Predict the structure.
Amino acid sequence: MSRRTDSRAPRDPRLDPRPRLGPLYLAGFTTAFGAHGVAAALGTESENIGLTLWGLGLILALYDIAEVVLKPVFGALSDRIGTKPVIVGGLLVFAAASALGVFAASPALLALARLAQGGAAAAFSPASSSAVARMVGPGQAGRYFGKYGSWKSLGYAGGPLIGGALILWLGLPALFVVLAVLAAVAAIATAWRVPALPVLPKQRVTVVELFRQSTAPAFLGPVTLLAVATSTLGIAVGFFPLIGAQLGLNPIVGMGLVSVIAVISAAVQPRIGRLHDEAAHRAGPLMAAGSVALVLSLVLAGAIPALPILIVAAVLVGAGVGIVTPLGFARLAATTPPDRMGRTMGSAELGREIGDAGGPILVGAVAAAASLPIALVVVSIATAASAALGATWAGRGTPAAAEDDRG
């Protein structure tokens, strides 16, 4: 199966046998660092900058709202004008928005900076995923998506830790300075090192064909599993520290649980990606195993709220996310024609954002009506049902089964 997958997807004329993906890894780290680092920072500095709880919640949501609305748009744009201009432009806008944050002395300016950061991330994030897929081809997609996801996981882990240290020593503006420098360096490195992939001719697509592509098992299966992974990750990051606080644990322990998740995920993703490329037929069982780990983490955290169990649950979340993420993106890369790779990656990122927002919202709603342990167990059932549906679709949407969609 893997040999057929490798030969079916046409490669770009400038495809490099040793692709220069370092700048794209830095871009992924930047968006993850910006998302979690600033969010954690605002939570600790809200009183100092005059933010009410309502204002804090709104500013935290602006980044994600911009990504949800704009990721499919910029993904499709990268298909039309090329991935490199969208990545470089998005990174430069992110740098400018971060520079604005340095001088944001009021909640209104801070909200504007955060909204601009989210819009910029919505541009370069799906375009970077598309560039990774096109530069390496489906035969190596797992390996390189594993590395790309690993760098993003490091950004998610390092964001709160580095951001907290910067604020403690130098204040909130220092965090925005670091983000501006990171984005500017990534933009320069991308412009210098990443090749300009040719814009491929596109066929006209009717609304019916677009609907068929968007509801094909080859797309819905991996995207559903990716959404399950990010949903569980969002729940763990938001509520595992809260459970720790309810147990009377030091807040540093809660932060440590989040770091465990991110470090495990960063360590697992490259290895799982390489395994996919060596034996693509194992992707289905592996994604199922990763989904089981995610569901089990929620069951354990809800049913047995104790520190040793929380540590085990954090390891399971990290392993599940580390398994599902590179396999999901590698499957999408293997079943998507290069001329619409950007649109597919943008839509996939949208699915992940919906999961990231929807999981914590559902837990919060059920917890408000019952309790947090009950909410985690209830949501684990919904997670299991979604994962089963995604695995079924993914099984029907293997590269061989998706031949018609690619052609």
Summary: The chain has two domains: 17-196, 212-407. The first helix runs from residue 2 to 8. The domain at 17-196 is CATH 1.20.1250.20 (Growth Hormone; Chain: A;).
